[in-house]
Amino acid sequence: MKRFFKWVENRSEEKEIRTTFGTLAGKVGLLSNLLLFVMKLMIGLFSGSVSIIADAMNNLSDSASSVLTLIGFRIAAKPADKKHPYGHQRSEYITGMIISFIILFVGGQFLITSIKRILQPESLQTSSVMFVILILSIGIKVAQGYFYQETARHIKSKTLLASAKDSFNDVYTTLTVFVSAGIEHFTGWQIDGYTGVIIAIFILFSGAQMISGFINVLLGDRPNEEELKLITDHLDNQQLIIGYHDLLIHNYGPEKKFATVHIEIDDRWNLNRSHKVLTGIEKEFKNKLKINLVCHLDPIAVRSKEQQKVYKLVKELLNSYELNLQLHDFRLENKDDLPLIQFDVVVPENISLTNEQLLIGIEKDINQKIGSYAIELVFDRTYLLKK
């Protein structure tokens, strides 16, 4: 498979590789699903099996999904324009959503047909040809699912991963049909309708899961732990910065990722040095991780003994609550009337206290235990970073 992928890449321009693989997967799926539909429909009509006909219609819906995959990758390949400055790659997710709804519709139709067969059972006309075709279709679906899966991993496509999952689900449904037909052939038990119900429920559940996954992506889901670790490792390896926080990642498609992060540096640096360091980090992310990163500058008064003292006291105060509260962006400004403390508090996901409740308690304790200060707090409840 790797050699095949390499061969395809060598015959494509770099900017078109993703579209080439997506189009190839769509064509393979379209041809193989149409072949399976024709074979299963023939034996389904011959045998009178509602579960086999349902399985055939499932393959027909997979053919429609393959057409949508072809269209989706073509649209996703369009460059950014005036109305869509971030490109069109999210159209892959929309395509996947449509495929999921088709799967739900087909599953619903199977369920109705299968219930009717339970109420009005009919004997099947089984044959050796029918069993051979069912076994052959299982093999084709396994190969199809594996091809989708490896292609999806190669180009990091959620749409093709969904197609791969659907293909492997089809293996289970056809295997169930095969077992059901075998039982009726040898025992005479009329379980075709019950098998159809099982298949329909399985398809409905799979479609609902796929819809949920695409909704999460379109709404803006959390990066997977592997991707997040890769990003934080690169930030942790920056030797010149003091720290970082408020990392946000925006996904506009598989190859369109944007991120923002606050970088803490020594406040004694001049503007040119600060710009050079942050630009270097942004270029590293662009070249190595393919992420468009924007760094926000946070100067830290590391040499101010007064600020470090108050910072330490405030940190100890927050730790005393045993709520795992973290702070960053700490500032101390000495004013004529009352010194001003500014900082952000990172609130863990499991804390039920509101921002107002936390604010009242922290302000009261700082003024009673540390000193009289004007206090400005910002509560951070984004849970991308755990530290």
From TrEMBL:
Q: Name one GO molecular function term.
A: monoatomic cation transmembrane transporter activity
Which keywords accompany this UniProt record?
A: Membrane, Transmembrane, Transmembrane helix, Transport
A Pfam family recorded for this sequence: Cation_efflux
Topology with regard to the membrane?
Multi-pass membrane protein
Q: Where are the transmembrane segments?
A: 21-43, 93-115, 127-148, 197-219
The UniProt record lists the keyword Transport: yes
- Domain Cation efflux protein cytoplasmic positions: 223-299
Q: Where in the cell is it found?
A: Membrane
Residues in Cation efflux protein transmembrane domain copies: 28-215
Transmembrane listed as a keyword: yes
Name the principal localization, coarsely classed. Answer: membrane
An annotated GO cellular component of this protein is:
membrane
As for family, the record states:
Belongs to the cation diffusion facilitator (CDF) transporter (TC 2.A.4) family.
Q: Which NCBIfam families match?
A: CDF
By what name is this protein known?
Cation diffusion facilitator family transporter
Q: What is the lineage of its organism?
A: Bacteria, Bacillati, Bacillota, Bacilli, Lactobacillales
